Amino acid sequence: MRPQRFKTRITELLGIRHPILVGGLGPKVSDGRFVASVVNAGGMGFIVAAGFPDPTEFRDQLQQCRDLTRGQPFGVNLYISRQAGGVDRVMRQIDILVEEGVRCVETAGASPEPIVPLLKQAGVKVLHKVPAVRYALSASKLGVDAVIVVGNDCGGHPGIYGIGSIVQAAHAAQVIPLPVVIGGGIGTGSQLSAVLAMGADAVLMGTRMLVTEELWIHPNAKQLVVRGDGTESVVVKKSIRDHHRVFRNESAEAALALDDAQVTEFEAYRPHVMGALSHQAYVSGDTRRGMLDYGPAAVFADAIESAETIFDQLIDGACAASRRLNSLEHAA
Question: pTM for the whole thing?
Fold first, then answer.
């Protein structure tokens, strides 16, 4: 593992070696074993709580991660649903993660305002993830410890505004007083260096990490990413304003057809976007169906490697980029 090369507000806040975070890759995808590999490589990862609705299974995942990280801090992704009962479900998950000593969470979805006081009282660091700077500004007033801003390049949910990560990075660093993490299309050390140069404090990766050795998904799903160059990425569900960037497969094509027809009823989309389809694709390796989060950073994922190897490459690349920038500076 590379020694610490960059000290930022995020590395200090989370007690990690590198300013590299790996977002929740989807229900049941980011499990305890995978998150432990990210933490042991010097970064921060998040077990997706929504993937383990059974309290015992959720607790087991937390305990497994704690054992594998030998007590190092790790995180949990909490999705706050806007549907009835969404906050209550998260509250129950918070009770368990606090009991198990989790020290930070990545919140997403609806406003984290109802749960921030409970988390802060328990000493849990809160990083709220949003798809636009305007939302990050609102979140920064709620008592969260940091914000994660993802651009239009991200696999998963890039929001409705279509603003790229390079604009979000520069803007967020200018106007948000809290530590800022930038995600969306990130997969190289030069991008890490650029994000830090723009004033942000860390990067968040998703698609780039789908080829990690420690990730449990079927080898066929990993090879899909290795073979890809990012142009297979497409945004669906635009008609219902739930933009979702995924791999262009049969399910995505069906959703695109509904978008083209300006269908606005979710029930028409349901058969193509059910979470069970994507889970089955990752289990079986048949990736023709399911909403598979997938962004253009797939172009950087050209081999199946350990989390530590990927992180080492990012740190080496960031150091090289920093040296190049310094070499270009011309003394007056």
Answer: 0.96
Strands 44-48 and 146-150: unpaired
Residue 18 falls within a domain, yes or no? yes
Q: Could you give the angle at the alpha carbon of 106 between the alpha carbons of 5 and 86, nearest 5°?
A: 175
Q: Quick check: is 227 in a domain?
A: no
Residue 130: closest CA among 159, 153, 152, 154: 159
Number of domains making up the chain: 1
Select from 83, 122, 87 the least CA-distant residue to 107. Answer: 87
pLDDT of residue 332: 67
Give CA–CA dist 280/85, Å, rounded: 27
CATH number for 95? 3.20.20.70
pLDDT of residue 191: 98
- Domain hosting 46: range is 9-212
> What average pLDDT does the segment 198-221 reach?
98
Whole-number pLDDT of residue 86: 84
Closest Cα partner for 203 from 224, 218, 214, 188? 188
Task: Calculate the CA 292 to chain-centre distance.
Answer: 14
Residue 42 in this model has a pLDDT that exceeds 70: yes
CA distance 156 to 153: 9
- pLDDT score for 104: 97
Please name the residue ranges forming H helices in 2-84: 9-14, 32-40, 55-68
Residue 322 covered by a domain = no
Structure tokens at 260: 């083209």
Residues 100, 103, 109, 112, CA torsion sign = positive
The CA distance from 170 to 200, in Å, is: 8
274 located within any domain = no
For residues 201-219, b (16+ Cβ closer than 10 Å) or e, as one string? bbbbbbbbbbbbebbebee
